[in-house]
Each structure stands twice: as structure tokens, then as C-alpha cells.
């Protein structure tokens, strides 16, 4: 089992959700986050005054998935979240030792 963590632009969330649904992903956790990478923030103009925005709003997705489906999930996220511009985000893949469904006590792949 793996957990896929993706950081994407907020306006791409619906596209990514639809792409994942199309390949049979049944659930994910979504969080609103802020951060920066190579962008290092940007300058905005508000009421004639310029100010620095150091942390860019992003969306963090967490998806627990069977190991044999990882490549399909990564491809779906990459295609749906891609704008071709800086700040499109990152995808992280880590091992997931176990999952337990609280309601039934099922564990492992059956709990996904």
C-alpha cells in the first residue's frame, strides 16, 4: 500500500477529482494549505499599495491506494493538474504500513 500526497493549485481540484473518479479512486482527503517552492511568493497590488505574498494558497490531497494502482493515480493527477506554468505542484509517494477501518476492524488492502 502507498499513500500519495499531491500539492496542487486550488482551481485544479475539481479536474483532479474527476480524473481520479474516472479511474476508480473512491476517496481522498483534501486540505487547504499554504506554501512556496521555486515561486518564492509574489507581489500584489491592493488599493494602490504593493505588498509581498510569501505563501501561496494550495490544495493538499492525500490518497491511500494499493501499490499496483500508484502509476495510474500519478498519471491522472499529473494530467489533470498540469497548467504548464510554475507552481503546478508536486506529488509525493510514501509507503503505508497498514490501514484499519474503524467501523469494521478490517485492515490492509481490504480497509481501503
Description:
- The protein has 112 residues and is α+β, with helices and mostly antiparallel strands.
- It is elongated, with a radius of gyration of 17 Å.
- It starts with a strand and ends in a 17-residue tail after the last strand.
- Helix 1 runs antiparallel to helix 2 (70-81).
- It is built from two helices and six strands.
- The chain has a single domain (2-111), classed as Alpha-Beta Plaits (2-Layer Sandwich), CATH 3.30.70.120.
- The strands form two sheets. A four-stranded antiparallel β-sheet has the order 2-5-1-6, covered by helices on one side. A two-stranded antiparallel ribbon has the order 3-4.
How are the SSEs placed, and which strands pair?
Elements: E1 2-8, H1 13-22, E2 29-35, E3 42-46, E4 49-53, E5 56-65, H2 70-81, E6 89-95
Antiparallel strand pairs: 1-5, 1-6, 2-5, 3-4
